[in-house]
C-alpha cells in the first residue's frame, strides 16, 4: 500500500530520529525488565547461572539499547559498541535481556545503509561477538539453537542488502527518467525553435511582399493623384487591403522571433494551389495518393495557406515513409464558412510504429512543427490512428474577417 501524504508512516519517514528514539526506549525498557525478572525470579537461568541484576548490568543494557536512536547515522560504530557491551555482560554472567535484537537491528541498518564491504565486516563482527559471548557465558546450547541464530542473522543481513539494492535501483530509475525527460524537453525546444524560425522566415517573405506592393501602389497613386483621381483611389484601396492583410500576419507571428539572422528566400512560398503538384510528386515516389477539394474555394490568408500546405506535405511524407509499399493516401480539403478543414489519411499497416512518436509519447520534430503551425493560427489539430486502420492527420483553421 502506498504511503499517503500526511499519514503517520510518511511522517515517521520524514522524521526518522523520532521513530528510532522510540524504538530504542522501548527495547531498553523491555531489556531491563527482562533482565530484572530473570535475575530475581530464576537466578540459575534456563541455560546456566546468572548473577542478580545490579546497577552495572542495567547500565550496560541501557548503554547497549539507547544509542539505537542514532542507528542511521553511525550504524557500524553502534554495532561494535553494542557487541562489546554484550561481551562484558556475558563475561560477568549477567542476563543481557533483549540486546540480541539490538544487534540484529544494527546489523540490518549497516546492510541497508552502507556499502557491501562494511556490511560484510559488520556481519563478521556480529558473528565473532556472538561466539565469544556464548563461550564466556557458558551458554553453548545445541546445534539447532546455533543454526537458528545463524539463519536469523543471515536473513536479516540479506534483507538489508536487498533493500539497499532496491533503493539504489529505484534511485537510478528516477535519475534516468529525469535525464531522459530533460533530454526530451531540450529536443522539443530545439525542434520548436527551429520550426518557429522557419515559420518566421516564410511569413517574413509574405509580409515583405505585401509591403512591396503597398509601396508600388503608393508611388503610383502619388503620380496620378492630380491627373487621374479614380486611378489613385483604386491604388489607395489596394494599399488599404494589403495593409489589413499585413496586420493580420503580423498579429499571428507575435512571439515568433528569427534566431538565425539569415535573409528570407526570395522565391514565393507554396500554397494550397500547389497541392496537385505535391500529390503528383507523391505518386511518382510510390504513394497512391488522391486529392479532393470540397466547398467553394476562396482566397486564404497567406500564413494559413502556407501552414495548411506544409501540414499536408508533412503528413504525406510520413505516409510515404511509414505506411508501407501498398498503402493509399487521401487528402481532403474542405472550405466551410469561417473554417478550413485539412485531412490526410492512409490505410497503411505502419500506424502502430508511428504512434510511438505521436503526441501521446515522443513526438517527432515534424509533428512538433505541425502543432506549432496549427497553434500559431488558432487551429485545432488531431494526430492519431484512423478508424478501420491506418493513420490520419486532421486540422481545422479558423478564417476570420479581414478587418483590423
From TrEMBL:
UniProt EC number: 2.7.13.3
Domain of life, source organism: Bacteria
Residue ranges constituting the DUF7134 domain according to the UniProt record: 9-167
Reaction equation(s) it catalyzes: ATP + protein L-histidine = ADP + protein N-phospho-L-histidine
Signal transduction histidine kinase subgroup 3 dimerisation and phosphoacceptor domain: residues covered: 195-260
GO molecular function terms attached to this record: kinase activity
Keyword terms, alphabetized: ATP-binding, Kinase, Membrane, Nucleotide-binding, Phosphoprotein, Transferase, Transmembrane, Transmembrane helix, Two-component regulatory system
Transmembrane segments: 21-40, 52-69, 120-137, 143-160
Ranges of residues in domain Histidine kinase/HSP90-like ATPase: 307-400
Enzyme class, first EC level, given as a word: transferase
SUPFAM superfamilies, A to Z: ATPase domain of HSP90 chaperone/DNA topoisomerase II/histidine kinase (SSF55874)
PANTHER family referenced in this protein's UniProt entry, alphabetically: NITRATE/NITRITE SENSOR PROTEIN NARX-RELATED, NITRATE_NITRITE SENSOR PROTEIN NARQ
Protein name: histidine kinase
